Amino acid sequence: MTSATNDEAAIRELLAGLVEAIRAMDLDGIRRFYASDIVSFDFEPPLSYTGLDAKLGNWKKIFATHERPLGYELRDLVVCVSGDVVFSHSLNRISGMRTNGTPANRWVRCTNCFRKIEGRWLIVHDHVSVPADAGSGRAMLDLAP
Amino acid sequence: MTSATNDEAAIRELLAGLVEAIRAMDLDGIRRFYASDIVSFDFEPPLSYTGLDAKLGNWKKIFATHERPLGYELRDLVVCVSGDVVFSHSLNRISGMRTNGTPANRWVRCTNCFRKIEGRWLIVHDHVSVPADAGSGRAMLDLAP
Question: Does the model's pTM come out above 0.80?
């Protein structure tokens, strides 16, 4: 295998580990995947925020409103790696039950950008969203691939 | 300068060229920046689409609803390059006048991912969005950085 093939396999394994940590609602597990100064364009406002604490705070909010186990899956994952930079994109689905008793079933678009920092791949930027309908001002929360 | 520094400068120059083409509403100019099989997580539905024609179709829709010249600016641009892979992210503002006579002023989050293909940097993935307010179901169309 080439180095790039090895690295792509490593990133896919890493993302599988992140999915496991999310399903387990394991904040300490999730913490290991992000750079301390991650710039996140996240699902909810603001437009942009910086830092691991804010990122984990958003996961904490999701975990607080969902029952265990949380359903989380990726599809159409593309990983592109060169040297110490990677980007990946996928359609991610959160499912399971909300704590208010309603079923959860939401697909979001997710782009993750990694850098290898001191030998570890870390997410330094992510972008998570649903499309907007500009005419009606609605967030398209119920689309499925 | 190192090769990475040169490449970062090249990508910043490329993005400046894309901004100019957008301001000029120059579809043929814009075409040069995208890979034929770009995977776009765009501002409006669907969740995801593939291909240059669809990408240009979306730009065409924006151009059809705005007066010339279109205002377009990037801020907080970060460019991260290694070998033949790049990601960049920024907050982008569309401004000017709509053809319906109302002023345009919208900030979006934009992540661009490039690959060097046959010696040319091309955008193979982009992700453009505003945040969603999950509670109200609103797209947050009027946020500013």
Answer: yes
Specify the amino acid at residue B109.
R
pLDDT tens digits along B99-122: 999 999 999 999 999 999 999 999
Phi, psi dihedrals of residue B69, rounded to the nearest 5° = -80, 150
Tokens of A76: 């159409």
* Chain B, nearest residue to A144 by Cα: B47
Token pair 């059809």: residue = B64
**Residue pLDDT, tens place only, A10-56:** 999 999 999 999 999 999 999 999 999 999 999 999 999 999 999 99
8 Å CB contact between A111 and A98 = no
Detail the DSSP E strand segments found in B2-141. 34-41, 49-50, 71-82, 85-97, 103-117, 120-129, 132-133, 138-139
**Angle in degrees, CA B35, B106, B51, rounded to 5:** 15
Partner-chain residue, chosen from A41, A86, A145, that has the shortest CB–CB distance to B129: A41
Best probe of the B interface among A89, A91, A102, by most B CBs < 10 A, is A89
Which chain A residues touch B85 with a CB distance below 8 Å? 80-83, 85-87
DSSP annotation of A70: P
